[in-house]
Design brief:
Elements lengths: L3 H4 L4 H6 L3 E6 L6 H11 L3 E6 L13 H13 L9 E6 L3 H8 L18 H17 L4 E5 L10 E2 L1 H6 L10 E5 L2 H7 L6 H19 L3 E6 L15 H13 L5 E4 L1 H6 L3 H9 L12 H15 L3 E2 L2
Parallel strand pairs: 1-2, 2-3, 3-4, 4-6, 6-7, 7-8
Antiparallel strand pairs: 5-9
């Protein structure tokens, strides 16, 4: 979430630990991308770009704004110097921020454009536009990967189900090189407003890891967090590095080794950056896998039922 210019001087801790960077880029920050990519190249840090639109345009890519997102991301890629390794491109597939904020955020509730998860573009056309942009990234020798909201895991396998269509986020219909599922235990617990315990959130992480492996195979990964707040400004965060280390251990126990941490800005702002980064990269400790409570079982059953509504087989 840090602007590209601010990241240039904060790369060494990542390079020392072999951690890749996914740098958010918004608006005119695109002009700072060449400097960041050259700095990453110098520190041996593999860099990906995470383009985001203005909040008024929905912020995150979806069916609602795929044309605008493709235009902005293409301009961003045009700025990549030929002298550096081509950057991976992150497609943070989520509904428009106006919709998300009114459901979850007390700070932004009732403010900003509501947005339309469906928009004027037909589903097939949206898929084609995402595929075309992903193809450009692949042709340059980089990866196009999707950050996926966890509800999409509860659509029927090999089908575009109710969750993907309701949110306007094509996951299964696009041939992503990788898919990282946002399984943020701090947010599961915090946004439940006391309904879910830390152990309930841990079980949702375990269940999500299993479903990600089943759905995406070796292309599947997991995003953990949150260390710092994100776009909404009031997302619940980890109590400390021990919770991150615990989540990493749970992922390792389920065979997940592609892990993304949200986010580096939080790591730097909360102090003890080394403790957070070492919790991410250290040898996983033995994991205690929690049991599913009655409340969690009911939640997962409801999520799967919703996913089956309106599911269409791919083909």
């Amino acid at each position: 979430m840090l602007p590209p210019r601010s990241l240039v001087g904060a790369l060494k801790p990542l390079g020392d630990r072999g951690i890749d960077l996914i740098a958010a880029v918004r608006g005119d920050e695109a002009s700072d991308v060449p400097e960041l990519l050259r700095a990453c190249d110098g520190e041996g840090v593999r860099c990906g770009l995470w383009p985001m639109l203005d909040d008024a345009e929905g912020r995150w890519p979806s069916r609602a704004n795929v044309a605008r997102f493709s235009e902005y991301a293409s301009r961003l890629l045009d700025r990549v110097p030929s002298s550096v390794a081509p950057p991976d491109l992150a497609f943070d597939l989520e509904p428009p921020i106006g919709l998300v904020s009114r459901v979850f955020s007390a700070r932004r509730a009732g403010s900003g454009p509501l947005g339309d998860a469906w928009g004027p573009v037909a589903w097939g056309d949206a898929v084609s536009r995402f595929e075309a942009l992903a193809g450009r990234v692949r042709a340059a020798g980089a990866e196009a990967f999707a950050a996926v909201v966890p509800m999409c895991l509860y659509d029927p396998e090999r089908e575009t189900g109710g969750w993907q269509r309701a949110m306007g986020t094509p996951v299964d219909d696009v041939g992503w090189d990788r898919a990282t599922v946002m399984l943020y235990t701090s947010i599961f617990e915090g946004w439940s407003r006391g309904a879910l315990s830390r152990d309930d959130a841990r079980y949702l992480l375990v269940d999500g890891c299993r479903r990600a492996r089943a759905r995406f195979g070796p292309r599947g990964g997991v995003s953990l967090g949150a260390v710092g707040t994100g776009a909404l400004g009031d997302e619940p965060t980890y109590r400390g590095p021990d919770e991150l280390a615990d989540d990493v251990a749970l992922c390792a126990a389920e065979g997940i080794d592609d892990i993304t941490l949200f986010d580096y800005a939080g790591v730097l702002r909360r102090g003890s950056a080394e403790a957070w980064l070492d919790a991410l990269t250290g040898s996983p400790r033995p994991a205690r896998v929690p049991l599913a409570s009655r409340r969690v079982r009911a939640l997962l059953a409801a999520a799967s039922m919703t996913g089956r509504i309106g599911a269409r087989r791919r083909g």
